[in-house]
Amino acid sequence: MSAAVLKDMLSRRPFEPFRVRLSSGDAYEVRHPEMALLLRTGLYVAVPDADELPERAIYCSLLHVAAVEPTSLAQ
């Protein structure tokens, strides 16, 4: 996955939530652009805890991002 694709998805207005699926099968949702920090080699995704402020972040190496899928907040 290229950083340019993720940068484009994070900067879209209105923002459209998406799911990052890794080669391991793990998946993380980016529900708001402020929940992600894009770096040259990866993406930090904030993991919310019971509708509160995120307590932790997961690092997703761009080498292991297998897919980026649109999602909806209704799920």
Keywords:
globular, 40% strand, three-stranded antiparallel sheet, 12% helix, single chain, 1 helix, 75 residues, mainly beta
Secondary structure layout plus pairing:
Elements: H1 3-11, E1 18-22, E2 27-30, E3 36-38, E4 42-47, E5 56-61, E6 65-70
Overall 3D shape: globular
- Beta strand %: 35-45%
The protein's oligomeric status is single chain
Average pLDDT, all residues? 91
Major sheet: arrangement of strands: 2-1-6
Helix content: 10-25%
Brief digest:
With 75 residues, this protein is mainly beta. Helices cover 12% and strands 40% of the residues. The strands form 2 sheets. A 3-stranded antiparallel β-sheet has the order 2-1-6, with no helix packed on it. Strands 3-4-5 form a 3-stranded antiparallel β-sheet, with helices on one face.
Would you kindly provide a written description of the structure presented here, covering whatever features stand out?
By secondary structure, the protein is mainly β. The chain is built from 1 helix and 6 strands, in the order αββββββ. A 3-stranded antiparallel sheet has the order 2-1-6, with no helix packed on it. Strand 4 and strand 5 form a beta hairpin. It is globular, with a radius of gyration of 12 Å. The mean pLDDT is 91.
